[in-house]
Write a structure and sequence with these properties.
Elements lengths: L7 E7 L6 E7 L2 E5 L1 E4 L11 H6 L5 E4 H6 L3 H6 L3 H5 L5 E4 L2 H6 L4 E3 L4 E4 L6 E4 L1 H11 L3 E3 L11 H21 L6 E6 L5 H13 L4 E4 L8 H12 L8 E3 L5 H10 L3 E4 L1 H7 L2 E2 L6 E2 L19 H5 L2 H9 L4 H27 L2 H12 L2
Parallel strand pairs: 4-14, 5-6, 6-10, 10-11, 11-12, 12-13, 13-14
Antiparallel strand pairs: 1-2, 2-3, 7-8, 8-9, 15-16
GO cellular component, one term: cytosol
Enzyme class: transferase
Pathway: tRNA modification; tRNA-queuosine biosynthesis
């Protein structure tokens, strides 16, 4: 039977030694293969890059943020201008965060109740109330391919009681989001919370699966816990999620962490790390990070990384890039961002190929050995 879901997922290949898989994600704005990395375009832009440059880096899907766009320019402005795709000039798939991460990151200026979250705007102090219904309405106005449920992500470490309360609220809010969502050309994903407490993770996952969402995200990781706790949370969660739906790990972008998560069955990732690091003169390479401001690069004629096809590596030297950063020229952050996105897309392409060839474990070992401590 052909699925009527606006976003559809098909498994194409599996790794025999792990739970990793290659998939095809079809959306109203095009298809992509997974595992895949989504750059963060919080305010309807990947900082410093035109949509053409974003696509040339290998990007096929990106993320924008409900909270920030509701404040500025406002979702009704975006709707009036044809929706988020037309507004930002990006014709590929888009996923919007619900604003749930701001529940965590802006805890000092928000108040959480069972009804929703009240924020004091970081721009002008005005009040923004974000309920599950309001989060869905904003995302329907923005028009991404994938909308996310509003969830409660507690800061860690936290007591079991606090994590359990966040899970209860996340489940209740997911049900309200599901009932409020009505846009037929947009999918809605649920978000599993539970910190590093296995039974709470399991309870949240099972409750959300029973609601039959179009896809599922693993939230509440990389918010204060160890990498071992992240690994355990993924192992508990992913096998409980439906095999015919995409699985999205929120906020993870280190190469080592992506490889570890793929092995548990994760399909999608997003993180500000490659763009933020690029703006701060740090570049990913297969041999570890390159800090372009270091004096060692002052007369280095070589590229950031040999063999990289990105614009920065094809055309410019480390010495020139170091000069741009030291001179505070905007071209430096632009080129470093292009390189970092290209690196992560090359990595996920290599991961997909390794899964198809049944050698993901070997690739993981090779990447860790090359990156070093």
């Amino acid at each position: 039977m052909v699925s009527t879901r606006p976003v559809r997922f098909t498994t194409l290949s599996r790794d025999p030694a792990t739970s990793a898989r290659v998939g095809r994600l079809e959306t109203p704005h095009g298809a992509l293969e997974t595992p895949a990395f989504m750059p963060v375009g919080t305010q309807a832009t990947v900082k410093g890059l035109t949509p053409d440059l974003v696509r040339e880096s290998g990007t096929r899907m990106l993320l924008a943020n409900t909270y920030h766009l509701a404040l500025r320019p406002g979702e009704e402005t975006v709707r009036a201008l044809g929706g988020l795709h037309a507004f930002m000039g990006w014709d590929g798939p888009i996923l919007t965060d619900s604003g749930g991460f701001q529940v965590f990151s802006m805890a000092d200026r928000s108040k959480i109740t069972d009804r929703g979250v009240s924020f004091r705007s970081h721009l002008d102090g005005r009040l923004l109330e974000l309920t599950p219904e309001r989060a869905v309405a904003i995302q329907e106005a923005l028009g991404p391919d994938v909308a996310m449920c509003l969830d409660h992500c507690p800061a860690l470490p936290a007591s079991r009681e606090d994590i359990a309360a966040a899970v209860d609220r996340t489940i209740a809010w997911a049900g309200r989001c599901k009932r409020a969502h009505s846009r037929p050309d947009q999918s809605l994903f649920g978000i599993v919370q539970g910190g590093s407490v296995a039974d709470l993770r399991g309870r949240c996952a099972e409750a959300l699966v029973a609601m039959d969402f179009d896809g599922y995200a693993v939230g509440g990781v990389s918010v204060g816990e160890s990498r071992e706790e992240v690994r355990k949370a993924l192992e508990v969660t992913t096998h409980l999620l439906p095999a015919d739906r995409p699985r999205y790990l929120m906020g993870v972008g280190r190469p080592q962490d992506i490889l570890a998560a793929v092995a548990t069955g994760i399909d999608l990732f997003d993180c500000v790390l490659p763009t933020r690091n690029g703006r701060n003169a740090t570049c990913f390479t297969a041999r570890g990070p390159v800090k372009l401001r270091n004096a060692a690069h002052a007369r280095d004629p070589g590229p950031i990384e040999e063999g990289c096809p990105c614009l920065a590596c094809r055309r410019f030297s480390r010495a020139y890039l170091r000069h741009l950063f030291n001179a505070r020229e905007m071209l430096g952050p632009i080129l470093a961002t292009i390189h970092n996105l290209t690196y992560l897309h090359r990595l996920t392409a290599a991961i997909r190929e390794a899964i198809r060839a049944g050698r993901l474990v070997q690739l993981h070992r090779e990447v860790l050995e090359a990156l070093g401590p």
